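2.7 Reproducibility. Because tokenized structures are sensitive to small changes in the input, we list the exact sequence used for Sulfonate transport system permease protein, including any N-terminal residues retained from the expression construct. No trimming or masking was applied before prediction.
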Amino acid sequence: MTTTLHTTPVAVDDKGDASDKRVVRRRLGPGRRIRFAFWIGPVLALTVWSIGSATGVIKPAILSAPWDVVVAFEDQWVNHDLLGNILSSLQRSAIGLFLGVTTGAVLAVISGLSRIGESLIDGPIQIKRSVPTLAIIPLFIAWFGIGQEMKIITIALISLVPIYIHTHNGLRSIDGKYAELAETIGISHGEFIRHIVLPGALPGFLLGMRFAVTSSLLGLVVVEQYNAVAGIGHMITLAEQYGQTDVIVVGLVIYGIFGYCADSAVRLTARRVLAWRKTLEG
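Resulting structure tokens (single pass, no recycling of outputs):
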């Protein structure tokens, strides 16, 4: 009889706790996810742009109307090598981003898992963090010339820093209780890294990826101004010389689409890969 009276309230409390957690999450969270929510902001911005251009609030000399940009896009696609420029820019950005992400992640793991590695790596990275990469471009030009190599290295170095910072922070933020638990149950060092450390650092890595993607496009915009014979930046530079505002906007829109789609892909990947985490996002 005593046992029954003791277990019944415990079961009720467990259910109550679970119910309370769900209620708290509903109250604190952003609510039910909206389909195609990523595109609401851009569509709203396009609507405001169109209305402003149609009513004359936005002058063509300041910003070309959306329909003029569409005409310019068609002209660049048909009469100029817009596709080739897009592919050239994507190639530079992808190679530089890959090199930066790979190097940054490796350095973060070495620094995050080793005191010696941290003493050798973290200091130089923090110094580099305080020095804008774009300010080092003149040195890169002197070292590597103004060809493709300089452009890719610049993009890689810009992408490296956010990957390193956030991955390293993710590694250092792992609760020490997991290490104690791993030691208690006797799992090997390799298993501990594979099953505890790397999954624990994954949220930081994916957050760094979002910053790295944006940073790589920032670097791409700048380096393509230097002696590029192809690419969106090259197209924008020529349009600036001839005063073609609509073509400049075409290039800016393409850059924006690159960044938005890449960021959306990283966010979608994070949502699927980190489905085991219970956050306010759901």
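The chain is about 80% helix and 0% strand.
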